[in-house]
Automatic annotation (TrEMBL):
This is Translation initiation factor eIF2B subunit alpha. Its main location: cytoplasm. GO terms for cellular component: cytosol; eukaryotic translation initiation factor 2B complex. Component of the translation initiation factor 2B (eIF2B) complex which is a heterodecamer of two sets of five different subunits: alpha, beta, gamma, delta and epsilon. Subunits alpha, beta and delta comprise a regulatory subcomplex and subunits epsilon and gamma comprise a catalytic subcomplex. Within the complex, the hexameric regulatory complex resides at the center, with the two heterodimeric catalytic subcomplexes bound on opposite sides. Keywords: Cytoplasm, Initiation factor, Protein biosynthesis. Pfam families: IF-2B (PF01008). It comes from the Eukaryota. SUPFAM superfamilies: NagB/RpiA/CoA transferase-like (SSF100950).
């Protein structure tokens, strides 16, 4: 019963946070839910603390299985707060110390988009032509920052099949007063000669220095490389995922195919399922712009290791 109560409590916090803040990213909402759970529940041993926190992370991951970034962000959260110095004999003081660290980290992550937008703004010039793919909250924040600085620029956005998420990007950009054209995913190569730079978000940053993102990102990166156009990735550091893919087949099936969305499928029964995520190797990425800084793609791994190991 206690296990069920913990799961229901943390998922309730998550749903409440998302309802109050619909534009908040799922992983950040999950982190805030975990902090609220820690503040509301007193644990008396480190074993109990770890068990209950693991249970909450599992519940959040299961409740929003289509958002694999939730599990990745929660694992970073767990790793970060448990780095605290267990110098107090009284565990309650240790717990309060971990809650303090958790609040500090989550508040920093809450400002990540704004930090990235400020770092990215100089890369977007007035009068330029930008290509973006699908819908990314952090990329939208960067576009808003550039517009707030008086910059006007044209944006090509891919239709982004199969869910046509590019149309959402187009509508929001039109509200900013920017000229926008939605293009077919298959027209990227045709349009690339007009493009000055490419900016995309990422579902995950991975150990190779590459990214996992909406299907079609890899095609765009290859076209940009061929035309010698800069390809920039904007993503929060909490999207770091501790895997090292080399090929597309190395992407975990649960991320690439969203198997939980299809309960009739058995694990591994994905041969005919359209992949929703692809892998872009670091050699196609010019710069990664994150809340940690503007980095060459390989440097994100060193930065994450220094933070969380």
């Amino acid at each position: 019963m206690a296990q069920t109560a913990d799961k229901e409590e943390v998922v309730g916090y998550y749903n409440s946070i998302k309802e109050d803040n619909p534009d908040m990213s799922p992983p950040l909402a999950a982190l805030k839910a975990l902090v609220r759970f820690l503040e509301s529940n007193k644990m008396v041993t480190i074993s109990e603390f770890n068990d209950r926190l693991d249970r909450c992370i599992a519940a959040l991951s299961e409740s929003e299985s289509k958002h694999s970034s939730i599990h990745a962000g929660c694992q970073l959260f767990l790793r970060f707060i448990t780095l605290t110095n267990m110098q107090f004999a009284d565990f309650e003081r240790c717990r309060q110390n971990m809650i303090h660290r958790a609040n500090h980290w989550v508040n920093k992550m809450a400002n990540a988009r704004q930090t990235i937008a400020r770092l990215a703004e100089p890369f977007i010039s007035h009068g330029t032509i930008v290509l973006t793919h699908s819908y990314s909250r952090v990329v939208m924040e960067a576009f808003k920052e550039a517009v707030s600085k008086g910059k006007m620029f044209k944006v090509y956005v891919t239709e982004s099949q199969p869910n046509k998420s590019g149309y959402r990007t187009a509508e929001e950009l039109k509200k900013l007063g920017l000229p926008v054209t939605v293009i077919l995913d298959s027209a990227v190569g045709y349009k690339m000669e007009e493009i000055a730079l490419v900016v995309v978000g990422a579902e995950h940053l991975v150990n190779s220095g590459g990214i996992l993102n909406k299907i079609g990102t890899f095609n765009i990166a290859m076209a940009a490389k061929m035309y010698n156009k800069p390809f920039y990735v904007m993503a929060e550091s909490l999207k770091y995922l501790d895997i090292f893919p080399i090929e597309q087949s190395d992407i975990p099936a649960a991320i690439k195919y969203k198997i939980p969305d299809y309960p009739e499928d058995k694990e591994g029964d994905t041969e005919d399922r359209h992949p929703l995520i692809d892998y872009t190797p670091p050699k196609y990425i010019n710069r990664l712009i994150s809340d940690i800084g503007v980095l060459p793609p390989g440097a994100i791994v060193d930065e994450m290791l220094s933070l969380y190991h």
